[in-house]
User: Fold these one by one.
Assistant:
Number 1:
Amino acid sequence: MASLKDLRVRIASVKATQKITKAMQMVAAAKLRRAQESAEAARPYSQRMGSVLANIAAVVGDGAEAPRLMTGTGKDDTHLLVVCTGERGLCGGFNTQIVRLARDHVRRLLADGKQVKILCVGKKGYDQLRRDHANLIIDRVDLREVRNIGFTNADAIGKKVIALFDDGQFDVCTLFYSEFKSVISQVPTAQQIIPAKADSEEAAADTSGATYEYEPDAGTILETLIPRNISVQVFRALLENQASFYGAQMSAMDNATRNAGEMIDKLTLSYNRQRQAQITKELIEIISGAEAL
Amino acid sequence: MAQSFKFELVSPERLLISEEVETVVIPGADGEMTVMASHAPLMTSIRPGVMTVNMSGGKAERYVIFGGFADVMPESCTVLAEAAVHVDDIDRGDLEQRIADAREDLADAQEDDHKQRAQEYLDQLTTLHGAILPA
């Protein structure tokens, strides 16, 4: 049985831990709000982008004019997986969930005899994937220094992906990130970005209007629009991820704070019991000593 | 009074304007153009330049935009800007950085086609620089 002093030290240490987790929870809550706001602020752009793209795609069609980024290379031998995770831990199963989804995907592709290449965005995903698939990782992007994710960060990743595609390094590109549903629910998601799938519903809604005029012409616009769209998708994924990360961290830290509270209660109880036992023992000693006289 | 229509300016980060406006002057790829209500459906790419928005209230706002697209419909107009800054908030350093980047791109360009595009972009940026920030 631990001595009274040991228990006191233990309680003090758990209390200190609880303070830290509590502070982290509150920081995560504040950051979550900001991340959520920026994710929402970015939504109009990607929506408009989607409808504009669907619009032009409907005009250009699948003909020879359509850029390769949209139609694909016609093969699906080599897959590029862009795995977006957080830079930090202490966020429950957030990183692990994304990595697990990516890993399952890799296994399935490898079993089908496809080639797989991985581009890691974020440190944690890289650390976890390195264990099993170090030979598949071709590059990693570190966002550790970045405080607020801006479009430029996403654009850099998008350009990297497109450069690889133009180089003939892969045929299909899939983006892995965690979609932010709510504070307590983040869903790991896989989204195919190359070849781009135009949303047929949106296209149907938009082409009801009159025919467009294009300046300079539809093909040229599409050529610049599609790479942009890839960057936008990456940007959206990063923002969703950011919000999910803070959501996950907040609930993880909330749990930790609560567990610490329970632990303190338990330790305090056994501390008090032991103190009481010691007092009783001392009393008995005194009384029996007095009776012996 | 001129008829008003719905105008939206969105950058990847956020929605900058969503208002009823009378006219918008857009620096289109093939030249500046003024969009008014009931314009024929048009899609154009945008070169770096200054966009003037004349609100229904008679107020005019000027924004510097760095490339993007404009989607014009009879009853609405949406500008998807790569980056957009209000003229008052423009940062000289940022613009100069962009010009420096464009110069590098030009130096790196190998093929003629690419080189020409880089040159055009650089020219547009320097023109913009001269127009809004008289030395």
Number 2:
Amino acid sequence: MRHALAIARREIESYFGSPIAYAVMTVFTFVSGLFFSNMLVHYVRQAALADAQIQKFGRSEFQLDVPTVVLAQFFQNEAFLLMLAVPLLTMGLVTDERRKGTIELLMTSPVRGVEIAGGKFLGAFAFLALMLLPVVPMFAFMGAGGNWEAGVIASGLLGLLLLGGAQIALGLFVSSLCENMLVSAIGTYGLIVTLQFIDTGGAAGGSIWTRLLGSLSFYARHLNSTRGVIAAADIVYFASWIALGLFLAQRSVDALRYKRS
Amino acid sequence: MIRLSHLTKKFGACTAVDDLCVDVREGEVVGLLGPNGAGKTTTMRMITGFMPPSKGRVSIAGFDLYDHPIQAKRKIGYLPEQLPLYPDMTVCKYLAYVAALKDVPAARTKAAVALAMERTRTGEVADTRISTLSKGFRQRVGLAQAIVHEPPVLVLDEPTSSLDPQQRYEVRELITALKGRHTVILSTHILPEASDVADRVVIINRGKVMAVDTPANLAGRLRACESVRLEIGARAAASAVSPDAVRESLAALPGVLDVHAAIGAAGIITARIDSAAGVDLRAEAAALVTGRGWRLLGLSGDSLSLEEIFLALTRDEREGGA
């Protein structure tokens, strides 16, 4: 455990020593804020319109719970942004150690492959959590409006952490396969974008295959959490992806010994 | 302390290391000597557990590297040829990180890092980022990470390659200072380096052990003849001098087998005297040249270079096989 924590700590420090991580964090925060304010303005206008209709005609065709709608939309957008950000955070996890030659230090130390994979995962996951932190004050705007949906916010953030964790674990595995950071990022994009949208092709059908693909989809699983619902099945689902990613990464790191490099 | 038995590594059809058997005693410094591509780095990587051998076993301080990898690895400090440094870390933080990986107890980490920096004289750069360090300092930091957990066994892969002569000297001094505390196996392709620090030298070529011996014995065994190299100024000499005259007079010395002499562009005659093994003609040759009133510009006993040793060894092998 001490090894994994040391590796995680070094990973976090190296994020803060690297321009890539700062750039990702800055852009992520900026675009999150942009989405948030745009949506807030949009739905507040809609709500005002609805209010005006109710006053004029006594009824309106749309009834709007602004905080719930904005939060649901916002967390879905954040899930999309995570998909773009995570491969940039995971591309170097193992790849960079191989490039620098520091993998030789890790693999000749009394450290197990599972500790390397676990430490790397923890480091990237902690950075992701830090990256979500600047998003939290945005919710204060909603609090100022009187509707502070703490439950929805908590479930939304937890949903993002679960989704991000699954993406990181898979990105870590891809990184352990690649000698080139760009290839590592592209491979991770391919994998997690596919998993995000794997159910979209069969949305109309009802066969076992479409249901199977639907149950595999990151998007479909993540949707609940954006509406304030955290189901045990969703937690198990994302935890399983994390476990699978870590298992594959650990096997792959151990197998690096057999490479000629 | 280090026992390599029948160590073999194959990469596809190519055999990088072939049936290597070496025993290193406690406290001994062994030099692994060979040209580039001889299998030195592959051997080092198998000793440190970075690479599994195709065949054979490695045992470190009594622990088999494959049955007890964690225990065995705790006993090893390893300086790979490509330094395993994180450029964005400071020296102090980096060494503390390595100490954690190598199971130095948390309470002792600070002291261990300080000691490693003291022994490698890197204290002055403790809070400097590794990316800004000079090559020589980086090499020392590399050495510091290898000794931070005070391992009984040190494995150093080309510790002085790509350093300038001054840095080379300093690193060699450091390694000499480590003698006694650690059992060391180091690789190099420079013979004088091995003979300076090593108690025993293992010469490998194309993955095979060619010879195992002390540096002095090795040089003596391979030296079939001794030779002396002379430079004589032909211009403004007190008496006339020509290559022929030089050859004639030097050939008259006792024990000479052969003499070559030729005149170079700058009017300098270079001569080489070959004599039987164990016959040192340097003093006699110098006395003769100055006695004739010639201007002696240079004189050196030719030592056998690594290349010559290899040529000699591979020649023996070819002849033995034929």
